[in-house]
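Re: beginner question about structure tokens

> Can someone show what the tokenized structure looks like for a real chain? I only ever see the sequence side.

Sure, here's an example I had lying around. Input first:
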Amino acid sequence: MKAVCLLSGGLDSTVCLAYARTHGYDACALSFDYGQRHRAELKSAAIVAEVYGAEHRVVKIDLRAFGHSALTDDIAVPKGRDEAQMGAEIPVTYVPARNTIFLSFALAWAEVVGAGDIFIGVNALDYSGYPDCRLEYIRAFEEMANLATKAAVEGRVIRIRTPLITLSKAGIVRLGAEMGVPFGLTHSCYDPSPEGKACGACDACVLRAKGFREAGVEDR
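And the corresponding structure tokens:
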């Protein structure tokens, strides 16, 4: 079985790739250099893909052309927020239509390589309020994919796989630990230092630390 896995190099996408490989998929890993301030994640993605024996491609697109996100524009990344603050509104780290763009590229590659499954590591609990991480969105995209592709018209159904969708960050950490995921190779920070060191205070760092703490697993 062949699958395309979206791989940022972060915790969730790495666990998702590990899940696909553990369940017998010949996985192709797809990453994006989209003008993000945390490009350090791409180094992690390359290493993770190699560890899991996945063909890895990095697509370069420049979402800075639209900006309007702390990840692609001159907007400060929020720091030191608690869970209530994170969940109060859609954060400025939301990149407009990012998952729709990424899944569209994954869909194109899936058609080319004959993959019937696309894996994405979204989760609906510790998801920082991003609307394109919800199950309703995933199901809508899947329906569109099966209307819009030659593969589907010819009878090859495209499935969007979301094995982490109902898990908390702690649940994702536990699942990764069970599969022996090398957590130390992953990168989650939205605002790393020039050397790639995590800031420890952005939403992504806070949620990651919370997940490992609640799971009782050391974050290396």
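Each token stands for a local structural state, so reading them left to right follows the chain. Residues 29 and 56 are 5 Å apart (CA to CA).
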